[in-house]
Amino acid sequence: MSNQVDITNGAMRERLRKLWDEQFPAHKHPVIAFRSAPATYPIKAGNRQIQKHFKWNLDLFATAQDEVNQLFHGEKFVGIHLRTGQDCVKSCEHAQGSSSFMASPQCLPASSEVEIWEEMCYPSVEHVVSLTAAAVEQYGAKHVYIATDKLSYSRELMEELEPRGVKVHHLDPHLPQMDLMILGQADFFIGNCVSSFTAFVKRERDANDRPSTFWGFPLSFSDGQV
């Protein structure tokens, strides 16, 4: 039995709770192990608010905070997430023309008839540099932090931003959670709409009222605008 419920729907939530209690009563099943999350993918819009209850391991977060302090020295920074691996190239070729793909409902509502386009799924280096530079200017940032699965575009970003006095950083940490924690603290974040990695960052930032957007969208992105 999977969890199809949207927690904003009280009647649906109560109905599913009763089904779970009947099939897996706590006195018989105090611990249940799953091969994957007993929920839909991507996450239903109404369930994104659950993120506010998520708390990082304190020791791990302290390590990330040390990196933030050493890299940015209290100055503003823009965080960006790039998916540039070969798997993403193939996936985006397949996704173009579809109305939904992987985590895309986070920027394309389920009711939207807008189709996925190239810059949204696999943005060009020119678009990455342009939108990042616009965010740096709008938020008065002195640093850009890059998280990526492959190509970082560090050279292109440095060529554009270092003459403006903006430093570009790419750690490529062993633990991807380090990127997640640092991106969550950025003054502004730009992510990949079809990526579940970006989706985690976006949910955490939404829970903390921090601004974000996606490649292919304007800096002033708001949910449900397309």
- Percent strand: 5-15%
Biggest sheet layout: 5 strands, parallel
The strands making up the biggest β-sheet line up spatially as: 3-2-1-4-5
Mean pLDDT: 87
What radius of gyration results from the CA coordinates? Answer: 19 Å
In helices, the fraction of residues equals 25-40%
What structural class should be given to the helix and strand makeup? alpha/beta
Element pattern in H and E: HHEHHHEHEHEHE
Low-confidence stretches: none
Helical run tally? 8
Kindly state the number of beta strands.
Answer: 5
End-to-end separation in angstroms reads 33 Å
Shape: globular
Could you walk me through the main structural features you see in this protein, from its secondary elements to its overall organization?
- The protein has 226 residues and is of the alpha/beta class.
- It has helices at residues 10-23, 58-72, 86-95, 118-121, 125-139, 154-161, 176-184, 196-207; strands spanning 77-82, 143-148, 167-169, 188-191, 212-214.
- The chain has a five-stranded parallel beta sheet with strand order 3-2-1-4-5, with helices on both faces.
- Helix 5 (125-139) crosses helix 6 (154-161) and helix 7 (176-184) runs parallel beside helix 8.
- The longest helix is centred in the N-terminal third of the chain and has 15 residues, at 58-72.
- It is globular and about 65 Å long.
Which terms summarize this structure?
single chain, 226 residues, alpha/beta, globular
Concise account of the structure shown:
With 226 residues, this protein is α/β, with parallel strands linked by helices. It has helices at 10-23, 58-72, 86-95, 118-121, 125-139, 154-161, 176-184, 196-207; strands at residues 77-82, 143-148, 167-169, 188-191, 212-214. A five-stranded parallel β-sheet has the order 3-2-1-4-5, with helices on both faces.
